[in-house]
User: Which sequence fits this backbone?
């Protein structure tokens, strides 16, 4: 059971544990593609854990990669307006990271894998209309 009296330390434990989970899954995945996905998650959790650990140890997040001012502004807005509803909070963070549904690009193929189709519930057979949707001409 996590001691949640120190939220930021609880977060650090969670990030490290999630990273460890994905590193383990990457090492033991039978499917190469799935292993690469887990490696990506492990790397992301590692970076996040280092940010949080620095914050705990020094009170500051280390200077990392150059963050565009517009990206930081979007992140700040998302952090400043957390919804009471967990699903809405998660959606707002998705929109901040991937862009709102209207600005996401369709990639084609399985709609479940397409950021542009996320949340749109396309009809069976659940195929993304593809990247050319916006430029299709009416004949
Ligand atoms: Zn799509």
Assistant:
């Amino acid at each position: 059971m996590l001691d949640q009296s120190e939220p930021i330390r609880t977060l650090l434990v969670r990030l490290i544990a999630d990273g460890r989970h994905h590193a383990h899954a990457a090492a033991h995945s039978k499917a190469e593609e799935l292993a690469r996905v887990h490696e990506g998650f492990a790397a992301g959790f590692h970076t996040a854990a280092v940010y949080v650990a620095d914050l705990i140890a020094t009170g500051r997040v280390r200077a990392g990669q150059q963050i565009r001012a517009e990206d930081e502004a979007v992140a700040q807005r998302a952090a400043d307006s957390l919804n009471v509803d967990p699903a809405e909070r998660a959606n707002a963070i998705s929109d901040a990271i991937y862009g709102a549904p209207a600005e996401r690009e369709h990639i084609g193929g399985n709609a479940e894998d397409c950021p542009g189709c996320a949340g749109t519930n396309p009809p069976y057979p659940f195929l993304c209309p593809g990247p050319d949707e916006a430029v299709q001409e009416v004949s």
The CA atoms of residues 73 and 96 lie 10 Å apart. The longest helix spans residues 32-58. Residues 134-139 have pLDDT under 50 and may be disordered.
